[in-house]
Specification:
3-stranded antiparallel beta sheet, formyl-coa transferase, domain 3, single chain, alpha/beta
Length: 411
């Protein structure tokens, strides 16, 4: 029997098919599902998503990135599976796929072929290097770290006297997923007005370089390459991480005339005495002002615990925060007041799981978590019955290996 869920959120009535694995595509689809879209994750019977729970790894990220979705485990590349996939496409608003560039065309599923089935379909392609460009690049495999490395993003992270390090956790995947949402929803808005679909091409490395902001623009216009800064700005004093009396790290950013004024007052520095002056926007590293500020900060943090230093600086109007662990996040009253963490029921047993609540928060049409991560193929029968497939044919599809179903979260 099909599960019944009351419509909710601003995307109620929107149908999304997800052909992606790992993080970027499932994350994008989970965001859509959190806001009310009906998401069907179509998984490969011959290639289990390695991000799912398995005997070696808990697969906790997938518990969020496949929530608010149903699972159909079916080979869509050929035969009856392809026919049934095309039936689903007829009623879909959006398809999200996460293969290497050009893979859909190899399966004779080009944009044009899919638009013959559904002219209003929005197709979101998420790949490492895009659908066009140098052929040898388009077909390259990619993971988060590859996107960071190829985009120049990784080169900016770490300490200047050591190898670059990747930023965590997986910003390349999550940025790419967010760009997928932006492009997909923009295209969907237009498709609903015109009845004509769109193809959205998101390359992982381009998402990263778009988010490189000042640094890439500085290079393109001046030729200046960024320097790895480690845990402290190389240009501004009072901009970075400091260790407090109790060993707690705190991050502070003294930037802007008002903040500089507030910080100097809190540190008992006379802003009207050289080398300082009222209206100073920052204290540059290596200058007399910067040296004095760093010396005063070192003494200040040596005398105060993290909690004390944070309170003094915040009360003075200086942006700062202790560098939280997840345990600190969980205990913080603001996290609790905004219900940033929440609990939802598993889709496969009577247990519950804790995770991050629906983000962003909407006032008039809020999202919700209506179901947890499904087991692989958990909704095979429900979805295929909706297409008019009989129980006998479903049994034959299992026998042929066209569809598959797992009985536990780990397979």
């Amino acid at each position: 029997m099909a599960e019944e869920f009351a419509p909710f959120g601003p995307l109620q009535g929107v149908k999304v098919l997800n052909l992606s694995q790992a993080i970027a595509g499932p994350f994008a689809c989970a965001m859509l599902g959190d806001l009310g879209a009906d998401v069907i994750g179509i998984e490969n019977p011959k290639g289990r998503d390695t991000s799912r729970p398995n005997p070696a790894l808990g697969g906790w990220g997938t518990q969020m990135d496949r929530r608010n979705s149903r699972s159909l485990c079916m080979d869509v590349r050929k035969g009856r599976g392809r026919e049934l996939f095309f039936q689903l496409l007829k009623e879909a608003d959006m398809l999200v796929e996460g293969f290497r560039g050009g893979q859909m065309e190899k399966w004779d599923m080009s944009d044009e072929t899919l638009w013959e089935v559904n002219p209003r379909l929005v197709i979101v392609h998420i790949s490492g290097f895009g659908q066009t460009g140098v052929p040898e690049y388009v077909t390259r495999a990619s993971f988060d770290g590859i996107g960071q490395a190829f985009s120049g993003y990784m080169e900016m992270n770490g300490f200047p006297d050591r190898l670059p390090i990747p930023a965590f956790p997986q910003p390349s995947d999550y940025f790419t997923g967010l760009f997928g949402i932006v492009g997909g929803l923009a295209a969907l808005n237009r498709a609903k007005e015109t009845g004509k679909g769109e193809s959205v091409d998101i390359a992982q490395y381009e998402a990263m370089i778009r988010c490189s902001g000042f640094y890439v623009m500085n290079y393109l216009n001046t030729g200046g390459l960024p320097v790895r800064e480690g845990s402290h700005s190389t240009s501004s004093a009072g901009y970075g991480a400091y260790t407090c009396k109790d060993g707690v790290p705190l991050y502070i950013l003294i930037l802007g005339a008002g903040v500089v004024r507030n910080a100097l007052k809190a540190l008992d520095i006379d802003i009207n005495q050289e080398p300082f002056y009222d209206g100073m926007g920052l204290c540059a590293m290596g200058t007399p002002a910067g040296d004095i500020l760093e010396e005063k900060l070192a003494a200040f943090f040596a005398e105060h615990t993290g909690a004390e230093a944070e309170k003094i600086l915040l009360d003075a109007g200086v942006p700062c925060s202790r560098i939280y662990t997840f345990a600190d996040c969980d205990a913080d009253p603001h996290y609790q007041a905004r219900e940033t963490f929440t609990t939802w029921k598993n889709a496969y047993d009577d247990g519950e799981i804790r995770g991050v609540n629906v983000i962003p928060k909407l006032k008039n049409n809020p999202g919700k978590i209506s179901r947890g991560m499904p087991l692989v193929g958990q909704h095979n029968e429900e979805i295929l019955h909706s297409l008019g497939v009989s129980d006998d044919e479903i049994a034959a599809l299992y026998e042929a290996g066209t569809i598959r179903q797992e009985k536990t979260p780990i397979g």
